[in-house]
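Predicting holo structure, nicotinamide-adenine-dinucleotide bound.
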Amino acid sequence: MSKQILILPGDGIGPEIMAEAVKVLRLANDKFRLGFELTEDVIGGAAIDRHGVPLADETLARAQAADAVLLGAVGGPKWDKIERDIRPERGLLKIRSALGLFANLRPATLYPQLASASTLKPEVVSGLDILIVRELTGGIYFGAPRGQRQLDNGERQAFDTLPYSEGEIRRIARVGFDMARVRNRKLCSVDKANVLASSQLWREVVEEVARDYPEVELSHMYVDNAAMQLVRAPKQFDVIVTDNMFGDILSDQASMLTGSIGMLPSASLDANNKGMYEPCHGSAPDIAGQGVANPLATILSVAMMLRYSFEQAAAAGAIEQAVSQVLDQGLRTGDIAAPGCTRVGTQGMGDAVVAALSAL
Ligand code: NAD
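Done. Tokens:
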């Protein structure tokens, strides 16, 4: 039976970068006889314009029926002033939580060709290869109660709640250990156990799970130290596992070590490795419609999809190799431009990856 992939281009540069990723996906589909069927739908601002909500029920049903989802990015100034509950980002939160995508994988890999694009010294970052595993459906972004109330003295007070159950911690810890096991066998669990009750349980449960993975070297680090170590000596890390909010911040920080957010893919997985794949960046309204956005993060998200949801490591590796070859050829979009390189647009970059992949 064919495998269904739902394509959700989204807003801003989403449709531009997705067009290139789909070209690469279609080629991989033919070349490696993957048997994928692609369908497309709307999410975010585009869905608000069409349905009045950022994620229509029928779109969610299609996502639930699909084997994997490939997403561009959502949001933009056009929808910034609408009611909070139907903002484009709500569509994203809803699809992640409805699909049970609790594990967010964000690699921060520095292609040697782009070492000079990082703001850190090349010797600090060259060869960087970190994977951040972030818990995505729990913690403070979803915790209740939350809101605002008025204090007796008339002041407004706002509050959020940071709950984590044992089961939520255990399943994300397992993903961290599983990933570390097939990489360099080092897992660093990041928390704030010196202050937060949720982090104390986090640390206890991670220690319990570690007993099943004697081959993985486990360490713990407080989040403030982790933020410091990521810029001081990032190559000390292999896999980092952490909660939703810490992971949100640290994965953006790690992405910048690599120079451009336009290069970084991500995967969000459920318990059965069904996943949603998307670039780490947003919809970049400042450059939308100009044909200059870097499509490589989305193309590399296709590679992650083939690896994690479909166990097609050879096809995934071929896409990654094609991207590396294109960088070797000196082709660069504006965000990774360097002296002596050839500047290309979104489509030019996509075409070059397609050409490199067909030649492999
Ligand atoms: P952004 O990631 O869209 O842009 C940040 C900067 O990086 C901009 O200067 C942009 O031009 C540049 N950039 C991003 N992707 C690029 C690419 N592929 N090639 C070249 N340059 C690229 O973040 P932002 O400006 O904070 O947010 C813009 C909109 O995107 C907002 O509406 C925000 O809510 C939304 N957003 C969506 C997601 C998502 O869909 N997952 C994530 C973050 C932000």
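Residues 14-31 form the longest helix (18 residues).
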